[in-house]
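Risk register update: the risk of archive-format incompatibility is retired. Evidence:
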Amino acid sequence: MPVVRPVVSETTALGAAYAAGLAAGVWNDLETLARQWRADRRWEPRWSADQRDDAYRRWRKAVERSVGWVDV
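Archived output:
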């Protein structure tokens, strides 16, 4: 799945501002807000399904081995 980074990195704050703006009538609807969004950069996947599955399998193995690593 492609990953898209928006121009505004503080999307939580932006979402709150958009919600407040909608409630206050600054924006008429969600479609108007959607037109405000801009992409900064986009990454496309390059791995094959086999590469992805192998990396995921190895990641899960690493996570399993790390469980209980440190006693709290």
